[in-house]
Design brief:
This protein is mainly beta. The protein contains 3 helices and 13 strands, in the order E-E-E-E-E-E-E-H-E-E-E-H-H-E-E-E. The protein has a single domain, classed as M1 Pyruvate Kinase, Domain 3 (Beta Barrel). The protein is globular, with a radius of gyration of 16 Å.
Amino acid sequence: MPALAPTSYSATVTWLGHVPDRAARLASDPLEAVDLTFAGIAGESRGGEIRPSCSRVLALHPRDTPIRNTRQISILSEEDLAAMAAEMGVDRVAPAWLGAGMALRGIPDFSHVPPSSRLQAPGGATLVIDMENRPCHLPVPVIEAERPGHGAAFRRAARGRRGVTAWVEREGRIALGDSLRLFVPDQPAWAP
């Protein structure tokens, strides 16, 4: 059996986007398709094969140490976005408001897919899931501008629903409507 086992799950790509200048604004611009390179989505401000370390890895590296960029793409599920919106009391939470690169529909409990799982497009483009993306404060003002009075509710509503971060294992094109197949690592959960 392969170390990465195919599952019966696949997801439909429902949204694609990129953030050209994260310092200017977090919200993503929508795209019809993305060309994935080993540096991520072309034109994406979070792209690159390396990145400066941040607060997520301070236990390992001093801030701004160059490290491998395993956070090239933020991927959300439509199911998690709908649950966030319901908890926040709004009609919707758009992937663009969270600076997402991709939104999918069809994989249950997507934010908790195991690290090192793969999502593969029909043409072979493959993304490796790094880990669950944790809620942060950056989307709050974007949501507040779109749905006044509701931005502050985001962090609580996004817990366990913020999607995952991923990096490009195999280059290729992914378009709206593509079906991505899920592969998961063939290993037991760690239990020391």
